[in-house]
Design a protein that fits this description.
This protein is α/β, with parallel strands linked by helices. The protein folds into two domains: about 400 residues, 3-Layer(aba) Sandwich (Rossmann fold), CATH 3.40.50.12780; about 120 residues, GMP Synthetase, Chain A, domain 3. Helices cover about 30% and strands about 25% of the residues. The chain is built from 19 helices and 32 strands. It has a seven-stranded mixed beta sheet, sandwiched between helices. Strands 7-6-8-11-12 form a five-stranded parallel beta sheet, sandwiched between helices. It has a five-stranded antiparallel beta sheet with strand order 24-23-25-26-27. Helix 3 runs antiparallel to helix 4, helix 3 runs parallel beside helix 10 and helix 12 packs across helix 14. It is globular and about 75 Å long. The two termini are about 45 Å apart. The chain binds coenzyme A (COA) and adenosine monophosphate.
C-alpha cells in the first residue's frame, strides 16, 4: 500500500476517483450516476443516484457471503451480570423481524423513529431495523431528561418511539417509562405508537392503545426485506448541542457514510474483517453510531456492546477483563475513562492481572487527550495510543494517526495529521473579513475546505439555513469546525479549544448557553453566567454564577440547590452541574457582555489580564474571593 503522503495527496487531488474506488467495499443495488454532485454549492452530495441498503451492508451480505456463523455482536453487561453473543445470522434475523414489527406499526421509508435506550443489543437491532426499511432513526442518549427528549420529538416528529423500560447505572435502576411519558406529554408532536423493551430489573406499565411490548411485537412480525434507498437519503438524525436550547439535528446519509466507515476501519483503525473491535461509548453518541454499530458490522468485524463503566463495574480492571475475555484487538474510548481508571489503579496492577498480549491499539477521542493521560496509557499498555479528532457533524475522524496506512510518530497533544479526504486548514478573518490561512504553528480557526468527504453531514434536519449559518458562512468555501488550534511545521494538528460556548464534560458535549437558559428560568435569578471549568476527571464541568433578583423569596442556599436540581431535571444528570455560586454582580464589558472567559481563568487558577473593555474593575476581586471561598482557583478539582 502507498504511504500516508501519497494516499492523502490522491484523496484531495482526485476525490471522485478516490472515493469511487473506496465505494467498492460496499454493495450497491444501483451504481451511482455521479460520485460527487457539486451542482449546488455549498451543498454537496456523494454517490448521487446510487441505491443501497445500509442494513444489507452491515448484516445480510456477510450472511450471503457464508459468514453467517461469525460473531457479529457481543453484549457484555456487568451491571446486569450478562454476556450474550449474536452471530451475523442471528442478528440479521432479529433485525428483520423487528423491522417487520415496525412496518406493521405503519413505519415506512423516510419516517422517523426515535430510539431512547440504554446499551442493550436491542438498541442496535432497532437502529439496523430502521435502516433496513429505509426509516430514519434518531437515537437520544439515556442520560437526557424528558425536556431534551421532547425538543427532539418536536423536531424529528417520529411516528414511533422505541424505548427500554429502564437503564441500569452503577448504583441504581433508572425507569425510562416515566421519562418517555413526560416527554410525550410535553411535546407538541405525538408519536402513533411506542415499543417498550421490558427489562426484568424494572418493568414498565404499558399505556394501552399506544405501547407495544417489544418481544410480542417481534414474535408476531413477518421478517422484512431490505429496502434499497438513495445513497443521499438520510440514515439517521443525531441531535447535538448547539449554542441555544434548540439542538442541531445532524443528518447522516446512507451511501457516503457506509463508504467512509468501511474505508476508516481498514485505513485508520487497521482492523481486519474477522477481528474484534470494541468501542466503549454509548449508542446515544456519534461514536456509538459509527463505531459500535455501523462501521464494525459493515466491515464484518465482531463488535462489543458494553453496558458498564470504566470503574465501579466492578472495578478499574473492567476494560482489561473485557479485552482479554473477548479477544479485543483494537479498543476505542474517551480520555476521561482513562483518567477514571488511572485514579483508582495508578500503578496499573489490574492491567497486569490480564493477558493483553493480542491487544494491538488504543484509540482516544471525544475530548482533548491530555498528554499525562496518554503517557500513562502508553506506559501501562505498551501499545500505540492514538488520539484522533472528530465531531458529531463529521461522523468519522478528521485527524488521526492512520494505523492501517502507516504508523506515524506520536506527538502528545496532537491528533497527528489530517485523515485522507479532509483538507484541514487553519484560518483567520483578515481586515475585510475574508478567510486567510495562518502560517504553520500559529493558532486560528480549524476549518475544512469544501467539499467535505463522504460521511460528513450534508445538512441539518429541515434547517438548511441554520446549516449554512452555523458551519459554512464564517469562512465561505470552508466548513468551520468551531475548534481552534494549529497545524505545526510537520503537518500535525493540535486541537486546543472550542470557539463557541460548547463545553466537553466527560466527553459529553454540552452548551453553556443552554444551561444558562435553564438557570435563568429560576424565578429568583436575575442574571447568570455558566462556564466550563477544569476538572481533573471529567476534563471540564459547568459552574454557574448567579445574581439574584432584589427581594428573592428563598434563602441563598436553597436557591443554589434548586438551580442544580433544575438543570438536572431539564437537561439531565449528565449536565453534571454541581456548583452554583451566588454573587452580588457579574463583571461585564462596557457594552454589557459578561466576561465569562476572565471568570473561567480565575476559576481555573490560570493567569489573566484585566480586560481593557471592563466596565467596573472592582467586580473582579469580588468574583475572585467568591471562587476562592468555594475552592476554585488552584489545581483542577
Ligand atoms: N442514563 C441515565 N443516567 C446517566 C447515563 C445514562 N445513560 N449516563 C450517565 N448518567 C448519569 C450518571 O449516573 C451520573 O448521575 P449522578 O449525578 O446521579 O451520579 C451523571 O449522569 C453523570 O454521569 P457521568 O458524566 O458519566 O459521570 P460519572 O461520575 O457517573 O462517571 C466517568 C464518570 C468518567 C466514569 C464516565 O463519565 C465515563 O465513563 N465516561 C466516558 C464517556 C464516554 O465514553 N463518552 C463517549 C464519547 S467518546
Ligand atoms: P462531539 O460532537 O460530541 O463528538 O464533540 C466534538 C468536539 O469534541 C470537538 O469539536 C472537539 O472540541 C472535541 N474533541 C473531540 N475529539 C477531540 C480530540 N481528539 N482532541 C481534542 N478535542 C476533541
Amino acid at each position: 500500500m502507498p504511504g500516508y503522503a501519497e494516499i492523502y495527496r490522491r484523496s484531495l487531488a482526485t476525490p471522485e476517483a478516490f472515493w469511487a474506488e473506496a465505494a467498492g467495499a460496499v454493495d450497491w443495488e444501483t451504481r451511482w450516476e455521479r460520485v460527487l454532485d457539486d451542482s449546488r454549492p455549498p451543498f454537496y452530495r456523494w454517490f448521487a443516484g446510487g441505491r443501497l441498503n445500509t442494513c444489507w451492508n452491515a448484516l445480510d451480505r456477510h450472511v450471503a457471503a457464508g459468514n453467517g456463523e461469525r460473531t457479529a455482536l457481543i453484549w457484555d453487561s456487568p451491571v446486569t451480570g450478562t454476556i450474550k453473543s449474536f452471530t451475523y445470522r442471528e442478528l440479521r434475523d432479529r433485525v428483520a423481524r423487528f423491522a417487520g414489527g415496525l412496518a406493521g406499526l405503519g413505519v415506512r421509508a423516510g419516517d422517523r423513529v426515535l430510539i431512547y435506550m440504554p446499551m442493550v443489543p436491542e438498541a442496535a437491532i432497532a437502529m439496523l431495523a430502521c435502516a433496513r426499511i429505509g426509516a430514519i432513526h434518531s437515537v437520544v442518549f439515556g442520560g437526557f431528561a424528558p425536556h431534551e427528549l421532547a425538543t427532539r420529538i418536536d423536531d424529528a416528529k417520529p411516528r414511533v418511539i422505541v424505548a427500554a423500560s429502564c437503564g441500569v447505572e452503577v448504583n441504581r435502576v433508572i425507569p425510562y417509562q416515566p421519562l418517555v411519558d413526560a416527554a410525550i406529554a410535553e411535546a407538541r408532536s405525538k408519536p402513533d405508537a411506542c415499543v417498550m423493551l421490558q427489562r426484568p430489573m424494572g418493568r414498565a406499565a404499558l399505556t394501552p392503545g399506544r405501547d407495544h411490548d417489544w418481544h410480542e411485537l417481534e414474535a408476531a412480525a413477518q421478517p422484512a426485506d431490505c429496502v434499497p434507498v438513495l445513497a443521499t437519503d438520510p440514515l439517521y438524525i443525531l441531535y447535538t448541542s448547539g449554542t441555544t436550547g434548540v439542538p442541531k439535528g445532524v443528518v447522516r446519509d446512507n451511501g457516503g457514510y457506509a463508504v467512509a466507515l468501511a474505508w476508516s476501519m481498514r485505513h485508520i483503525y487497521g482492523v481486519a474483517p474477522d477481528e474484534v473491535f470494541w468501542t466503549a461509548s454509548d449508542v446515544g453518541w456519534v461514536v456509538g453510531h459509527s463505531y459500535i454499530v455501523y462501521a464494525p458490522l459493515i466491515h464484518g468485524c465482531t463488535t462489543v456492546m458494553y453496558e458498564g463503566k470504566p470503574v465501579g463495574t466492578p472495578d478499574a480492571g473492567a476494560f482489561w477483563r473485557v479485552i482479554e475475555q473477548h479477544d479485543v484487538r483494537v479498543f476505542f474510548t474517551a480520555p476521561t475513562a482513562f483518567r477514571a481508571i488511572k485514579r483508582e489503579d495508578p500503578e496499573g496492577a489490574l492491567i497486569r492481572a490480564h493477558d493483553l498480549s493480542r491487544f494491538r491499539a488504543l484509540f482516544l477521542a471525544g475530548e482533548r487527550a491530555d498528554p499525562p493521560t496518554v503517557a500513562w496509557a502508553e506506559e501501562q499498555l505498551k501499545v500505540p495510543v492514538i488520539d484522533h479528532w472528530w465531531q458529531t457533524e463529521t461522523g468519522w475522524p478528521i485527524g488521526a494517526n492512520c494505523l492501517g496506512i502507516e504508523r506515524m510518530p506520536v506527538k502528545h497533544g496532537s491528533c497527528t495529521r489530517a485523515v485522507p479526504g479532509w483538507d484541514v486548514r487553519v484560518l483567520e478573518a483578515d481586515a475585510v473579513g475574508e478567510a486567510r490561512e495562518v502560517p504553520a504553528g500559529e493558532i486560528g480557526a480549524l476549518a475544512v475546505k469544501l467539499p467535505l468527504p463522504p460521511g460528513a453531514l450534508p445538512t441539518l434536519w429541515q434547517a438548511e439555513e441554520r446549516f449554512v449559518e452555523s458551519y459554512l458562512s464564517a469562512y465561505p468555501g470552508y466548513y468551520q469546525t468551531a475548534d481552534a488550534g494549529m497545524i505545526d511545521s510537520d503537518g500535525y494538528i493540535h486541537v486546543m479549544t472550542r470557539t463557541d460556548d460548547i463545553i466537553n464534560v466527560a466527553a459529553h458535549r454540552l452548551s453553556t448557553g443552554e444551561i444558562e437558559e435553564v438557570v435563568a428560568s429560576h424565578p429568583d435569578v436575575a442574571e447568570c453566567a455558566v462556564m466550563g471549568v477544569a476538572d481533573a476527571l471529567k476534563g471540564q464541568v459547568p459552574l454557574a454564577l448567579v445574581v439574584l433578583k432584589a427581594g428573592a423569596a428563598r434563602a441563598p442556599q436553597q436557591i443554589e440547590a434548586e438551580v442544580v436540581a433544575l438543570v438536572r431535571q431539564r437537561i439531565g444528570p449528565i449536565a453534571s452541574l454541581r456548583t452554583t455560586l451566588i454573587v452580588e454582580r457579574l463583571p461585564k464589558t462596557r457594552s454589557g457582555k459578561i466576561l465569562r472567559g476572565t471568570m473561567r481563568s480565575i476559576a481555573d487558577g490560570t493567569e489573566y489580564r484585566m480586560p481593557a473593555t471592563i466596565d467596573d474593575p472592582a467586580i473582579l476581586p469580588e468574583i475572585e474571593a467568591a471562587l476562592k471561598q468555594a475552592g476554585y482557583g488552584g489545581e483542577p478539582r
